[in-house]
Amino acid sequence: MSRGVNGGGTRVLGLDLGARRIGVALSDETGTLASGLPTLEAVGSRRDLNTVAALVEKHAAGCVVVGLPLNLDGSSGPQAAKALSFVEGLRRRVRVPVVTWDERLTTVAAHEAMIEAGVRRERRKRLVDQVAAVLILQGYLDARS
Length: 145
Description:
Elements: E1 11-17, E2 21-27, E3 34-41, H1 45-58, E4 61-68, H2 78-93, E5 98-102, H3 106-116, H4 121-144
Parallel strand pairs: 1-4, 4-5
Antiparallel strand pairs: 1-2, 2-3
Helix pairs in contact: 1-2, 3-4
């Protein structure tokens, strides 16, 4: 049985960056299953980076996966540039690997999953970032297993 993506059974933190909110997910210790954590309100790059760095420490995460919002054709746009800037800032603040993961259509998939589950519109608005973070992290974990 695998001991996780980093060989040591450490947890992996997943992020879905948005202009207003940051969805957060955390893997189990085996690096097999992603679960949502409370969504963060985006308050500014420096404070957001410090908050995420504190989460890495709190949960003893051995890796951080940040969703990279590429265009449908795979090219980078302004949102991808913002995400990459956040990744670089986070790499300077934490002592664990920070990697990107293609997040194309994860927000759409998150909405569709919640609609199928019968989640009301108001609740979907509050949960979409967390669900997207779970989908990003789970995709990363599945690809690495």
